[in-house]
Specification:
Low-confidence stretches: none
Shape: rod-shaped
Order of helices and strands: H
Radius of gyration: 33 Å
Mean pLDDT: 86
Largest sheet: none
Number of strands: 0
Helix content: over 70%
Length: 77
């Protein structure tokens, strides 16, 4: 009877260790996935900011070119 009890305790201990390990792996996987999603979100925001910055720079460059052209035309007259 003691032998059965020992085997049962060992089986319970093994299943508990397995459950804890499986839970730890699941939590680790989910946490890494959430961090990766957060990083992708940050990268997307940076890309959008970069596009906006480029568009603003292009707009200002066009305005400066127009002003320069107006000045050159006024000087030539």
């Amino acid at each position: 009877m003691e032998a059965r009890k020992g085997k049962r305790n060992l089986a319970m201990l093994a299943s508990a260790v397995g459950g804890v390990s499986l839970g730890w792996l699941a939590v680790d996987y989910i946490s890494k996935r959430q961090r990766r999603e957060a990083n992708e979100s940050i990268i997307g925001r940076v890309k959008n900011f970069e596009k906006k910055l480029y568009a603003d720079g292009e707009k200002r460059a066009n305005e400066m070119q127009r002003i320069k052209q107006e000045v050159e035309e006024a000087v030539d007259e």
